[in-house]
Amino acid sequence: MSLNPAPEERPAVPPGLYGNITEKELDRDIRNLQLPEADSLFATEEELRAMYPPGDFERLQEELDNP
User: Which of 5, 41, 43, 63 could form a disulfide with 9 if both were Cys (CB 3.0 to 4.6 A apart)?
Assistant: First the structure.
């Protein structure tokens, strides 16, 4: 009999890596962070224009459209 557990029995995260929290509790906590939706991470075209000096946004867009 081997003292090492079979691969399917080994925990995905080494014990003690996250203190006293289990992997299941960690997954639950990550889901409960209430991160913003991906769409809200992007700026509108108007906001992007305001972030760049005059003419730079248009130049960057032109470079993206015609590489």
Answer: 5
